[in-house]
Amino acid sequence: MRWLKSAGEVDASSIFRKFPVMTDTGIIKLILQGDKEKYTILVEQYQQMVFRTCMGFLHNKDDADDLTQDVFINAYQSLPRFRGNAAFSTWLYRIAVNASLNKIRKSPLMMIRQQFENLSGDKKGKEISVSITDGEDPEKILIRNEHVKWVQRVLDSLPENQRIAIVLSKYDNLSQREIAEIMNASEGAVEALLQRAKKNLRKKLSAQRKN
Questions:
Q1: pLDDT tens for residues 135-163?
Q2: pLDDT tens by residue, 193-209
Q3: CATH number of the domain bearing residue 209
């Protein structure tokens, strides 16, 4: 079952014209009662959120696209176990984070490929890059793109909990309260994780610049 569209194909307004405005809980209730088409509403609403999260861990557009599809399939199959103790978006974030980490753990070759692509400048993997504007100095463009690759490599080297917190904070722009809900942690613990992650990032990036 293929629900996802590319970013350019998504037209949220058409979805809301097609379906009346409903809460996530109400939509899920209808899906579980047999109206499977309603799942399209949730996919359209949260597709970019899930993709950003997967991209934050994988740094590769093709892999993130594929994993986003897997996350929504997993979520659809798990809907009967959704109890509503947390928001659907929080529950979906947890699935996306766990799926991303599992993919990395089960695919060590992916990490090797990422490092090779970042070091060699190979663009086939479609990793995150800095946009280019007309008339910019090519040397400045290369420096900025190299900085992005440094950040990606250093992010990958962080301890897992620090990495989760920083991805949700910087890629998804979530508050500490929202991150705490996703990670089943206190806001104080998340704040400490983010502080340690930022400290490690600064330290590691500084060391890479010296090299």
A1: 545 445 444 555 667 778 888 889 999 99
A2: 999 999 988 887 777 66
A3: 1.10.10.10
Residue keyed to tokens 């994780």: 193
pTM: 0.74
Q: Which domain holds residue 5?
A: 1-108
How far is Cα 202 from Cα 205, in angstroms, rounded to an integer? 5
Contact call for residues 113 and 62 (beta carbons, < 8 A): no
**What is the C-alpha separation between 14 and 44, in angstroms, rounded?**
10
Indicate whether 207 and 149 sit together in one domain: yes
